[in-house]
């Protein structure tokens, strides 16, 4: 795990030096993409396409899932939005494509890492969990005061994944040792 952490620090320094942002994606005509949905879909699908598990995915349902995710991200939140999620997915890709990570993590764990990354800011209201607890926000009553936003984001993500039109991976399929549903419960429950 130390090798992965060392690799992560290397990329953080590189990313800081190149002004890493999905807001500079160049379209096929040589112009910077302006459509945030196209940017989000382009970044996410290109990242997923770089892993061998992508051949096991239903591409139409993946696009449906990513579109639903984009449409449900807050447009008002200046930071925790779909473009931030795209940036985060790109960063995770840089880390997970390296040899230490490819030797440590299974394909299921990589897919879950991408899904977790996509869901982190999904329902983020722009304030901290501590602030939500202080004002007795309804989310705190449902999810508790420690991982309020993260738990709410995971619930929303699972809701979208469980819709037939978005089910690009079979959550109940036995992929190796455990079904995806067991990975979700073990790793994010």
UniProtKB/TrEMBL annotation:
Q: Which residues form the signal peptide?
A: none
One annotated GO molecular function is: metal ion binding
PDEase domain residues: 1-189
Q: Cross-referenced Gene3D superfamilies, in alphabetical order?
A: 3'5'-cyclic nucleotide phosphodiesterase, catalytic domain
What's a Pfam family this protein contains?
PDEase_I
Keyword Ligase (UniProt): no
Superkingdom as given in the UniProt entry: Eukaryota
What UniProt keywords apply to this chain's record, in alphabetical order? Hydrolase, Metal-binding
- InterPro entries the record matches: PDEase_catalytic_dom, PDEase_catalytic_dom_sf
Q: Where does the chain cross the membrane? A: none
Please give the biological process terms from Gene Ontology that the record holds.
signal transduction
What name does the UniProt record give this protein? Putative cAMP-specific phosphodiesterase
The organism encoding this protein is Trypanosoma cruzi
